[in-house]
TrEMBL record:
<dbReference type="GO" id="GO:0007265">
    <property type="term" value="P:Ras protein signal transduction"/>
</dbReference>
<dbReference type="InterPro" id="IPR011524">
    <property type="entry name" value="SARAH_dom"/>
</dbReference>
<dbReference type="InterPro" id="IPR046349">
    <property type="entry name" value="C1-like_sf"/>
</dbReference>
<dbReference type="Pfam" id="PF00130">
    <property type="entry name" value="C1_1"/>
</dbReference>
<dbReference type="GO" id="GO:0031267">
    <property type="term" value="F:small GTPase binding"/>
</dbReference>
<keyword id="KW-0597">Phosphoprotein</keyword>
<dbReference type="GO" id="GO:0005634">
    <property type="term" value="C:nucleus"/>
</dbReference>
<feature type="region of interest" description="Disordered">
    <location>
        <begin position="175"/>
        <end position="197"/>
    </location>
</feature>
<feature type="compositionally biased region" description="Low complexity">
    <location>
        <begin position="175"/>
        <end position="184"/>
    </location>
</feature>
<keyword id="KW-0493">Microtubule</keyword>
<dbReference type="InterPro" id="IPR000159">
    <property type="entry name" value="RA_dom"/>
</dbReference>
<dbReference type="Pfam" id="PF00788">
    <property type="entry name" value="RA"/>
</dbReference>
<keyword id="KW-0863">Zinc-finger</keyword>
<dbReference type="InterPro" id="IPR033600">
    <property type="entry name" value="RASSF1_RA"/>
</dbReference>
<dbReference type="GO" id="GO:0008270">
    <property type="term" value="F:zinc ion binding"/>
</dbReference>
<dbReference type="GO" id="GO:0005874">
    <property type="term" value="C:microtubule"/>
</dbReference>
<protein>
    <submittedName>
        <fullName>Ras association domain-containing protein 1 isoform X1</fullName>
    </submittedName>
</protein>
Length: 340
C-alpha cells in the first residue's frame, strides 16, 4: 500500500446544512436499465445476513438506521442492534438485512490505554483567540517541528491553511448507492455528492485503518470535514450519524472529546502542535446519546412528535390490557371461592 497520503481539498465549502431538494438521486429508470428482469427476480429473494444476534437497542440509542438511513426514533421501541457488530436498524428493517455479521471489530486501540479512558474530559488547554502576530508565530513554530511537506501557510486575508489527518474508526457499516457513478468535481462543489432519495443501497464495513489527510482552511468547521469525508467514500448515510472527536494521550490515559459542529479543527491542530499524541482527530459514530434537535427540520420534528404520540398510546394500551387481564384473573378466583 502506498504511504503517500490521499488529500482532500476543502477550500470553498458552503456552510453545512440539511440536504436541499436539488440533490442528485438514483432514478427508477436508471435502476431498471442496470438490473434486468432476471436480476430483479433474484433481488426479491434476498439472502438474510448471517451471524447477527439482534436485541433491542438501549434507551440512550439515538441514531440512524444502517439499512434504510432513516432516523430511529422512539422511547420504548428504539430499534434493534446486533450484539456483535453493532449493526443498528428499525424493527421493520430487520428482515431486509443482507450484510453478514463481521463479529466484534478490533479497531486497533491499545487496551492498556483504553481501559482508563475518560470521555468528555476537559482539555488542559483552552482555545483562545489569537492575534495576527500570534497566529504567524504559531505557524512558524508548527512548520519548524514537522518533517514532511504538510506545512501550514498564512493567507493575505488573515486566514491560514494546513493539513489535518483523520482516522476513521467506524464500528458499524456505511451505505453507498448501488450502481451510482462517483460525483464530479462540480457535484462536490454544489454538495450533490450524496443523494437524499437513494432507495437502492449497498452496505459494507470500512477498513479499520482508514486514514485521510485533508487540506483545510482555518475557518473550516468540523461538520464540513465530516461531509467531505462522506463524499470521498460516496457514503449516503446522514452526516449527523457521525461525529468528529479529538483524542489526546496524557499520563498514560486517553482523553476523547466530541467536537461541536462549529469548532475549527485546524485551529485546534495549530494550538496543539503537530504531535499526534497531543492531538489527533477521529471520525466515529455519533452514539453518545446526545441529540442536536436544532439540526432537524420542522417537518422532521413534527413527525417525531406524531411517532412519539402513537408509541405512547400503544404503550398505554398494553399496560391497561395487562392490568385488565390481571384484574380479571383475580375476580375469577374470587367467584370460584366458596362463600363462608
Amino acid at each position: 500500500m502506498s504511504t503517500e497520503p490521499e488529500l482532500i481539498e476543502l477550500r470553498e465549502l458552503t456552510p453545512a446544512g440539511r440536504p436541499g431538494p436539488g440533490r442528485a438521486r438514483l432514478e427508477r429508470a436508471n435502476a431498471l436499465r442496470i438490473a434486468p428482469s432476471p436480476a430483479r427476480n433474484l433481488a426479491r429473494k434476498q439472502v438474510p445476513g448471517r451471524g447477527h444476534r439482534f436485541q433491542p437497542a438501549g434507551p440512550a440509542t439515538h441514531t440512524w438506521c444502517d439499512l434504510c438511513g432513516d432516523f430511529i426514533w422512539g422511547v420504548v421501541r428504539k430499534g434493534l442492534q446486533c450484539a456483535y457488530c453493532k449493526f443498528t436498524c428499525h424493527y421493520r428493517c430487520r428482515a431486509l438485512v443482507c450484510l453478514d455479521c463481521c463479529g466484534p471489530r478490533d479497531l486497533g486501540w491499545d487496551p492498556a490505554l483504553e481501559r482508563d479512558t475518560n470521555v468528555d474530559e476537559p482539555a488542559e488547554w483552552k482555545t483562545p483567540e489569537l492575534s495576527q502576530a500570534e497566529i504567524e508565530q504559531k505557524i512558524k513554530e508548527y512548520n519548524s517541528q514537522i518533517n514532511s511537506n504538510l506545512f501550514m501557510s498564512l493567507n493575505k486575508d488573515g486566514s491560514y491553511t494546513g493539513f489535518i489527518k483523520v482516522q476513521l474508526k467506524l464500528v458499524r457499516p456505511v451505505s453507498v448507492p448501488s450502481n451510482k457513478k462517483p460525483p464530479s468535481l462540480q457535484d462536490a462543489r454544489r454538495g450533490t455528492g450524496r443523494g437524499t432519495a437513494v432507495k437502492r443501497r449497498t452496505s459494507f464495513y470500512l477498513p479499520k485503518d482508514a486514514i485521510k489527510h485533508l487540506h483545510v482552511l482555518s475557518r473550516t468547521r468540523a461538520r464540513e470535514v465530516i461531509e467531505a469525508l462522506l463524499r470521498k467514500f460516496l457514503v449516503v448515510d446522514d452526516p449527523r450519524k457521525f461525529a468528529l472527536f479529538e483524542r489526546a494521550e496524557r499520563h498514560g490515559q486517553v482523553y476523547s472529546r466530541k467536537l461541536s459542529d462549529d469548532e475549527q479543527p485546524l485551529k485546534l491542530r495549530l494550538l496543539a502542535g503537530p504531535s499526534e499524541k497531543a492531538l489527533s482527530f477521529v471520525l466515529k459514530e455519533n452514539d453518545t446519546g446526545e441529540v442536536n434537535w436544532d439540526a432537524f427540520s420542522m417537518p422532521e420534528l413534527h413527525n417525531f412528535l406524531r411517532i412519539l404520540q402513537r408509541e405512547e398510546e400503544e404503550h398505554l394500551r398494553q399496560i391497561l390490557q395487562k392490568y385488565s387481564h390481571c384484574r380479571q384473573k383475580i375476580q375469577e378466583a374470587l367467584h370460584s371461592c366458596p362463600l363462608g
